[in-house]
Design brief:
Elements lengths: L1 E2 L16 E3 H8 L3 H9 L6 E2 L6 E4 H11 L5 E8 L12 H19 L5 E6 L9 H11 L3 E6 L2 H4 L3 H12 L3 E4 L6 H22 L4
Parallel strand pairs: 1-8, 5-6, 5-7, 7-8
Antiparallel strand pairs: 2-4, 3-4
């Protein structure tokens, strides 16, 4: 089952993971039905808050993360997968790919810690997410999955695993092997997304011209 990221309950909420989540989105995040979430409230596992303006029930995201971690079956390992693309000029000190990758790793380690998710291995890659370039980290991840050593893969956004058609193929690959894919946030920040898409499209156009004999 793919678990989607937390939906922001309040427009303009700062931070990649939001603050408050309404009941429907909270149930989807935990992979349960809304009535199961109500039972969790009755058992005292999570506290519900009612919006005095519209009467809708919402939850604090950190409490949802803690509940998710307590429910996670960790008989097999949990892998945190992080990938960063090389953007723009390699000589630009403000665009250091390794610095951005470590920032992503630190953010996601903190995220998993709040969720109570024990991360058994952090796999890091530098490169595009088109699938046209072999990435050693992704190879390592697939090997672990095939060997039945992984119960969950955690990524910041779907784009970190891969994009275009390759992303859907990898999601199905994980599902076939009984591996849960947990996505912390639905999408990359717009600036990073635009830059990575430009890079991907450039590589795809270059490869297309090469196959057509135009290069």
């Amino acid at each position: 089952m793919t678990v989607t990221g937390i939906t922001h309950a309040f427009p303009g909420a700062e931070g990649p993971f939001g603050r408050m989540v309404y009941r429907k989105e909270a149930a989807k995040f935990l992979g349960v039905k809304p009535r199961t979430l109500i039972r969790y409230e009755e058992l005292g596992l999570i506290k519900a808050h009612k919006n005095v303006v519209n009467g809708r029930v919402h939850y604090v995201d950190t409490e949802l993360l803690a509940l998710l971690g307590s429910r996670l079956n960790q008989s097999r390992g949990v892998v945190l997968y992080c990938r960063s693309a090389v953007l723009g000029s390699k000589h630009n000190p403000n665009n250091d790919v390794h610095a951005r990758l470590e920032e992503q790793v630190n953010l996601m380690v903190s995220y998993c810690s709040k969720a109570g998710i024990r991360v058994d291995e952090v796999i890091k890659d530098v490169g595009p997410g088109t699938g046209q370039v072999g990435l050693p980290g992704l190879d390592r991840l697939m090997e672990l999955v095939i060997r039945k050593k992984v119960s969950m893969v955690v990524v910041e956004t779907p784009d970190r695993l891969a994009r275009w058609g390759m992303g859907h193929i990898l999601e199905r690959f994980l599902a076939w092997h009984g591996v849960e894919l947990h996505i912390a946030c639905p999408a990359l920040a717009r600036k990073d997304l635009v830059e990575e898409l430009k890079q991907d499209l450039t590589e795809i156009i270059y490869e297309s011209k090469r196959l057509l004999g135009e290069l």
